[in-house]
Amino acid sequence: MNISIFGLGYVGAVSLACLARDGHTVYGVDIDQTKLDLIASGKPPIIEEGIQETMAVAVNSGRVRVTSNCAEAMAATELSFVCVGTPSKKNGDQDTTAILRLTEQMGEALRNKDAFHTIVIRSTVRPGTVIPEIEPLLEKHSGKKSGRDFGLCFQPEFLREGTSIKDYDNPPMTIVGCNHPDSTAQLEALFGGLPGKFISTDVGTAECVKYACNAFHALKVTFANEIGRVSQALGVDSRKVMGLVCEDKQLNISTAYLRPGFAFGGSCLPKDLRALLHVARENDVDIPMLAGLLPSNEEHINLAVETVLSRKTRKIGMVGLSFKSGTDDLRESPLLTLAERLIGKGMNIKIYDPEVNLARIMGANKRYLEESIPHVAQLMCDSCDEVLQHGEVIVLGLGDRDIVSVVRDNISAEHYLLDLVGLSDVEELPCEYRGACW
Ligand SMILES: NC(=O)c1ccc[n+]([C@@H]2O[C@H](COP(=O)([O-])OP(=O)(O)OC[C@H]3O[C@@H](n4cnc5c(N)ncnc54)[C@H](O)[C@@H]3O)[C@@H](O)[C@H]2O)c1
User: Is 268 among the residues known to form the active site?
Assistant: First the structure.
């Protein structure tokens, strides 16, 4: 393939060297003449393990050209990767000056090109940049229609400095968001053979994934360091602790708990988190990230309360009260907190939870229900139908198959459904729908 790469920093230089090594003809474009001269002489403009050799092989193959002329590079190629920098502004926003200026030039170059061309943004850009900002600029300057006359894609870059050539050859996955099937096919031809799945998705999702991945990495580093500081203060070897945490591939290093849903609760997580924070305070250890978890969780409940109250009806049906499906444990259940907050706001609520049935539950939970929250106990119904008949707003807090199918079968256009469990096929529902955070 004939490929142009705009921006020859860490990402662009590695891509140029690897693509040329793999047999493609690559035009490197940069506004920095020193970088162009270095590459032309077979030397990389960056320091990375293996880049000297790979760049030398690539340039010696005769398949690398460099230029500062955008139009020349686009005319000679069928696909362009954009790898210019998107640094932080003082206020934390991304500075898109370079990428937007380049976009205008690329648009002008497209105007004079008859053949179909694909532009792939690889710079990390804030979600909502490629389609709302870059696309109209390209269309304005080219006079052409995106998705028809040229393809526009976003492909997040996952390489890490220091191991970038290895990462290029062994990505965890390749994600592309494209608006033209020919562009997707070009990228699949280039990267489909690499290890890791080749996944085609929409541009917005692809943009968000990059931010989610980097935030997750930062969160993991901070988690390990905060646990490290507390362990150290207690005279415990944090490396042993975290080593053992990582041994659990079922709940810890796994997909568990990573699906957007409702607030956490129950008899363990809030209690143990509070105790950990207390231990940290006692030892003068500051752990702001872990200290932020309970307020963040509370925010999730606030959002549900606000959503229900915004409906301007008092008739609320709640399906679920315990902290998760299949248990009658009400301790620190976020659904119970939600119910109490709504009762406090004067809502007329009916609740159904098959596990929290006054006639069936026994022991501590029955006592808790009857003595501590009798006002909630009075609102319990014996059937899901009763709740659906009563409520104009239905809050779905249980995801059991049987309950979901009763809700699906009986919900009507008059209802508003606040889904806290993550139903599938929601477009088939007859009512207005809102997911907790999706
Ligand atoms: N560095 C990484 O490990 C990494 C990893 C993943 C994603 N990213 C993202 O990739 C993008 C590039 O990162 P980087 O570290 O390679 O940046 P960098 O600053 O090293 O390189 C950017 C290059 O773009 C050039 N440039 C600026 N304006 C240009 C224009 N109009 N035309 C052509 N070239 C132009 C600059 O001269 C520079 O050489 C950023 O958005 C970054 O967030 C970086």
Answer: yes
